[in-house]
Backbone:
């Protein structure tokens, strides 16, 4: 821990500079910077909100600078651009912060960081935003692009999709919601515009922490009581039996009741569904082919009553250390970690009762919690991932015994990484069939014509996920 520092906006500014300089992911940069300062829970919360918010809304904030500044955003000095971002983010998105506080603290940031000569520029740009915002939203969508609840029902077809929109209109949506155009195009290929509005808006909300209770150590009710006693607000999750959501008051996760005792593990409810779909049974031999950091391997072990063997495989021996740590904390003994870099899995040929491929993917279902992905992922990288995903699925199929089960899952909303992978595999492997998902999720309208499970976050208030269960005949 470092020195006492109560200026949460300065800490947020330093975190953004860390992200820019080292291309660090937001969560990693925040942990690194916050460990240098003593901040109370309220200030830590504001730092998190500012940093995640700025990264999420970066394209929208740059567009505002383009309109309000004498120079375009990409022409601004990097530190000044981030000060603009912090000020404009507070003015546009944080209603609880008075406009005067947002402006004044941004001017103070300029002075504190050696940009005192530009404090007038900061003041001018932010006050210019306030003046123009009184006349209406500077980034307002054209009337035909507005969400349905903002206009006359007749002005937007509920089936509006990619075919109806020009590149300029897609660009306008990208600026308004702060997404790259290619992601919006991807989702318009899957959903009508009315649904894409909801999806984009959902991904721009702060992520909530969800946890999975270890039923071998405790109960959902006991953990809920303990967390509420520590000041956290808790919601029971309907879709998964061992799930709780921490709505607020989490603070430092590792300090919450039950963490050190192995009562629970942080895991999103969508990810919890994957292990339920796999449905491991006591005494079986299970292979988790892409296991680190161990969320699903430990869940599988819990569902088996810690009876049997879970081979937690991953290419990285370093990442597998996290699997071992989590298994130890959760007091699970059935997990065997295996680094597979350069290693043949021939010894498992036709041996596994069930195999899970939680494939490396573009992560487009987790953009609220991992906002960096929207700026770092691209179609070229995804093409490389698709090759890897196909290879992993084909490799996994050789490990499953006759009548055994194979589950393929991703945390993305990209048909080429999901539906297309499964369709291609089934077309080339006649001995495999897709199995009706069980348990089903409530109000499932997306998968009526198929047997896979696809979760759109705005419909279920959980991470975007795809999963398919296959059986070898």
Residues:
């Amino acid at each position: 821990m470092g020195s006492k520092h109560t200026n949460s906006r300065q800490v947020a500014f330093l975190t953004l500079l860390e992200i820019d300089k080292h291309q660090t992911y937001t969560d990693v940069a925040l942990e690194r910077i916050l460990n240098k300062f003593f901040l109370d829970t309220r200030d830590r919360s504001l730092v998190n909100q500012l940093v995640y918010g700025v990264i999420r809304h970066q394209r929208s904030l740059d567009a505002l600078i383009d309109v309000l500044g004498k120079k375009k955003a990409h022409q601004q000095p990097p530190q000044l651009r981030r000060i603009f971002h912090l000020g404009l983010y507070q003015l546009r998105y944080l209603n609880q912060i008075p406009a005067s506080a947002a402006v004044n603290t941004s001017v103070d940031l300029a002075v504190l960081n050696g940009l005192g000569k530009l404090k007038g520029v900061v003041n001018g740009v932010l006050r210019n935003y306030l003046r123009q915002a009184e006349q209406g939203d500077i980034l307002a969508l054209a009337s035909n692009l507005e969400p349905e609840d903002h206009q006359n029902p007749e002005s937007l077809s509920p089936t509006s999709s990619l075919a109806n929109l020009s590149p300029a209109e897609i660009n306008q949506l990208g600026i308004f919601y702060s997404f790259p155009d290619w992601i919006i195009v991807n989702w318009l290929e899957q959903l009508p515009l009315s649904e894409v509005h909801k999806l984009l808006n959902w991904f721009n909300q702060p992520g909530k922490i969800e946890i999975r209770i270890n039923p071998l150590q405790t109960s959902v009710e006991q953990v809920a009581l303990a967390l509420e006693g520590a000041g956290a607000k808790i919601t029971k999750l309907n879709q998964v039996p061992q799930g709780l959501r921490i709505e607020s008051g989490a603070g430092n996760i590792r300090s919450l009741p039950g963490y050190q005792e192995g009562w629970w593990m942080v895991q999103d409810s969508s990810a919890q569904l994957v292990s339920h779909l796999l449905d491991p049974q006591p005494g079986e031999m299970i292979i988790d082919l892409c296991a680190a950091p161990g969320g699903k391997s430990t869940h599988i072990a819990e569902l088996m009553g810690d009876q049997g063997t879970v081979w937690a495989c991953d290419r990285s021996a370093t990442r597998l250390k996290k699997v071992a740590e989590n298994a130890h904390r959760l007091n699970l003994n059935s997990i065997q970690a295996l680094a597979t870099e350069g290693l043949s899995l021939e010894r498992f040929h036709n041996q596994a009762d069930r195999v899970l491929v939680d494939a490396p993917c573009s992560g487009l279902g987790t953009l609220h919690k991992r906002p960096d992905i929207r700026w770092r992922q691209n179609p070229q990288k995804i093409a490389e991932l698709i090759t890897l995903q196909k290879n992993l699925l084909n490799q996994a199929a050789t490990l499953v015994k006759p009548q055994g089960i194979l589950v393929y899952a991703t945390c993305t909303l990209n048909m080429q990484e999901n539906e297309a992978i499964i369709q291609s595999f089934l077309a080339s492997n006649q001995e495999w069939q897709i199995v009706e998902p069980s348990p089903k999720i409530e109000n499932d309208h997306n998968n009526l014509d198929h047997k896979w499970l696809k979760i759109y976050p705005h419909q279920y208030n959980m991470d975007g996920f795809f999963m398919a269960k296959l059986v070898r005949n």
Observations:
- The chain has four domains: 8-133, 166-204, 209-266, 269-472.
- The mean pLDDT is 92.
